[in-house]
Amino acid sequence: MKCPYCNFSQSKVIDSRPTDEGSSIRRRRECESCKKRFTTYERIEDITLMVIKKDGNRESFDRSKIINGIIKACEKRPVSIDVIEKMVKDIESIINRSMVKEIDSKKIGELVMEKLKEIDEVAYVRFASVYRHFKDINTFLQELEKILNEKR
Known about the structure:
By secondary structure, the chain is α+β, with helices and mostly antiparallel strands. The chain contains five helices and six strands; from the N terminus they run βββββααβααα. Strand 2 (24-31) and strand 3 form a beta hairpin.
């Protein structure tokens, strides 16, 4: 880290402490040449995650879209907002651990359906009916039969 006063490239850390609820670290440094002190901040670099839509267009990942979709699926169901928040956090963690910069919207939808199936089967079927574009009652029944067969 270069000293802002003399441009010397060597400094030592005198004090470190977390700031902004732990999302960054404030460091007090002392230049080894001129002995002046200065402050630096260390933050995790945000990596922009791009979502590849069905039509091939790309857009930035938007967590609120996942939350809104899950809330709609869980309407009038006994699923608390805390449970929904945890589902979204879990989905984000899975995506972040995959270390990809781009992800298909289809993969995100599949992750949402996996989580919904664990939490509430009715919400899962609601989400799946919109996500998979059920064309008629037979497609809907096939999905219900899958759930019933998994339970047996």
